[in-house]
Specification:
The protein is mainly alpha-helical. It has helices at residues 3-13, 17-36, 55-68, 79-85; strands at residues 39-43, 50-54. The protein contains four helices and two strands, in the order H-H-E-E-H-H. A two-stranded antiparallel ribbon has the order 1-2.
Length: 86
């Protein structure tokens, strides 16, 4: 029996399966709610907290950060150049 079939068997026959299904239901409901309201989850600065933020606000904060720190998009991936130098 391959690993995928074993995992499926364990998931289907586990006593804790109801808890897993309930947790998965909650996760799916939260994911749908976030998508419907154009929200996303972001790790907060300097803590282990998670913040719910509007995607448009997040994009604006990122854009402002990039402008303030003079961050620009590279025209070419420099990885090959640096790997070749080694």
């Amino acid at each position: 029996m391959d690993a995928a079939k074993q995992i499926k068997y364990i998931m289907n026959n586990s006593r804790d399966n109801n808890v897993h299904k309930r947790n998965q239901y909650v996760v799916n409901k939260i994911r749908n709610l976030l998508q419907q309201n154009n929200l996303t989850l972001v790790k907060a600065d300097k803590s282990k907290a998670i913040v719910i933020i509007d995607k448009i606000s997040l994009e604006e904060k990122i854009r402002c950060f990039m402008q303030e720190n003079k961050i620009t998009k590279l025209s070419k991936d420099p990885t090959e150049f640096h790997v070749a130098r080694q």
